[in-house]
Amino acid sequence: MRKQIVAGNWKMNNDLKASKKLAIQVAKKVKKSNLKGTKVIIAPTFVNLERVVKATKNAKIKVAAQNMHFEESGAYTGEVSAQMLKSIGVKTVILGHSERREYFSETDEMLAKKVNSALVNKMNVIFCFGEVLEDRKSGNQEKVVESQIKNALFHLKAEAFKNIVLAYEPVWAIGTGETATPEQAQDMHAFIRQTLTNKYGEELAESVSILYGGSCKPGNAKEIFSKKDVDGGLIGGAALNADDFLAIVTAF
Ligand code: PGA
Q1: In this structure, which long-range contacts are made by residues 77-82, counting pairs with CB atoms below 8 Å and at least 24 apart in sequence?
Q2: Is 97 considered catalytic here?
Q3: Active site residue: 97, 99, 106, 131, which one?
Q4: Do residues 244 and 17 lie in contact, with contact meaning Cβ atoms separated by under 8 Å?
Q5: Which residue, 131, 136, 182, 185, could crosslink 144 as a Cys pair with Cβ 3.0–4.6 Å?
Q6: Is 69 a catalytic site residue?
Q7: Which ligand 1 atom lies nearest to the CA of residue 234?
Q8: Contact by Cβ (8 Å): 180, 145
């Protein structure tokens, strides 16, 4: 059975006080809503990770980093490694977010190395990918998504996918208020699952959770999550408000 997951990517928002406050609010609401099976993840910025881990120690919430470097240590000014994240209790990392690809020039090749490093360190990966508007307009969205997945993940052995969650995030829908329709999301998720089936077989493809991301809000989450191949969401803007985030978490 695939896991249902809702992850909040806080991006470069919330100082320490605001991070702790939001984490505690989310934790309380998660407890109250008595979730059946939905896994909740929050991803604060690096500097606030440790305090958020502590603040949510007894809650049913996992804390993820938004990025990491692929080397263990060394002369990489400003970077953070998997081993460092693990040392503060962070066992999940978001990799390949479109903002990392666009503003920080992350390539499929670098992402393959980051995925390797996360897995070697026994971390869980939320691997993001998705097409830009021009790809969608020219009908190339499947080709683009297929190559992003193949280039960064298809060197892996099947077992590795036990620790990988995929997040399809059409770039044209991120932070724009424009969401993929539930049908567009389902079509792409089915295509992604087929791509996994072609390489690793149906059993594996059926076991991998595929999240949707891009302007997912309380008002549209239910319909998107009701689609057969959508196993949850990666939430940006709406994850910064505890009520909105929980409305999405409980949308299943
Ligand atoms: P958004 O961001 O929900 O604000 O569109 C999603 C994401 O970037 O993960």
Answers
A1: 80/46, 81/117, 82/117, 82/118, 82/120, 82/121, 82/123
A2: yes
A3: 97
A4: no
A5: 131
A6: no
A7: 9
A8: no
Residue of the nearest CA to atom 6 in ligand 1? Answer: 236
N residues, the chain: 252
Per-residue pLDDT tens digits for 170-190: 999 988 888 899 999 999 999
Per-residue tokens: 206:
């059926």
Across 73-91, average pLDDT: 98
CA geometry: angle 140, 143, 149, nearest 5 deg: 140
pLDDT band at 205, cuts 50/70/90?
Answer: very high
Q: How far is CA 236 from the centre of its chain?
A: 10
- Indicate if ligand 1 lies below 6 Å from the C-beta of 43: no
**Residue 81 gets which letter from DSSP?**
B
If you average pLDDT over every residue of the chain, what do you get? 97
